[in-house]
Design goal:
Blueprint: H1 3-12, H2 16-26, E1 51-57, E2 65-71, H3 74-84, H4 92-97, H5 101-107, H6 109-112, H7 115-138
Antiparallel strand pairs: 1-2
Helix pairs in contact: 2-3, 3-7
Length: 139
């Protein structure tokens, strides 16, 4: 599913219960992490549900990042997939320049998520940016 399809679906769905069902289904679209990557070093700090995040820089020119992630719960796994959509396949520079606030606002996540989930979301997004910053210096 692409970003515009998500926006369209969110407009059609009348309740957050329905939207959260859709979000949970998005978890199937995550690029999986390997068992070796499921380490404490790759855990997203600040998430209530254990969530892992890694990024792999392609050999393309210019190189782009592919984020791989997983979470222990289906809703969080779906939220992770939703949060990664604007970042997948972008260069580190594009990721670092991108402000996810309008995307999050258009989805209405700040209002729909609990305070703990909002904090986890922001920590997750910080992790996305940290990986991009590290990839930029590694290239």
């Amino acid at each position: 599913m692409d970003i515009q399809s998500i926006f369209d679906a969110f407009e059609l769905l009348e309740s957050w219960d329905e939207r959260f069902d859709l979000v949970a289904d998005l978890g199937r679209e995550l690029l999986p992490i390997t068992a070796a990557e499921r380490t404490d070093a790759n855990l997203v700090r600040g998430c209530d549900t254990r969530t892992w995040l890694v990024g792999h820089l392609s050999n393309d020119r210019p190189p782009v990042l592919a984020y791989h992630a997983d979470a222990e719960g289906p809703l969080v796994r779906g939220l992770v997939a939703l949060l990664l959509m604007p970042f997948q396949g972008k260069t580190p520079e594009e990721i670092l320049a991108y402000d996810p606030a309008p995307y999050i606002e258009k989805l209405g996540l700040e209002q729909a998520l609990s305070m703990k989930r909002r904090a986890g979301m922001h920590e997750f997004l910080s992790g996305v940016k940290r990986i991009a910053a590290a990839a930029r210096t590694a290239d």
